[in-house]
Amino acid sequence: MVRAVIELKITPQRETGFGKIAERVSRHEQVEACFLMSGAYDLLVFAKGESLQDVAQFVAQDLATIEGVLSTATHFMLKTYKAGGVLGFDGDGDGRLPVTP
Prior knowledge:
The chain is an alpha+beta fold. The protein has helices at residues 19-26, 52-63, and strands spanning 2-10, 31-36, 43-49, 69-76, 82-83, 86-87.
């Protein structure tokens, strides 16, 4: 399983703002989460796929072709160091920090 963070720059739609495009993006099964953001990009999307090519194809064929999407930037997650408040270093047992008195 491959995970990626995808930034989308979009044009707000009349009367619906960013909501209509965000809803359309969120309906894809590859999308785990979608957030409206401040900064250079408007939407931040967490996506998953079977391979790097699978995610790249999803971005190129499904996201980039949505009317109102101006650009995308895809960042693949290579290694997890911490997720859900739990450390994820390789070989560190259960990932919890040791408690010392």
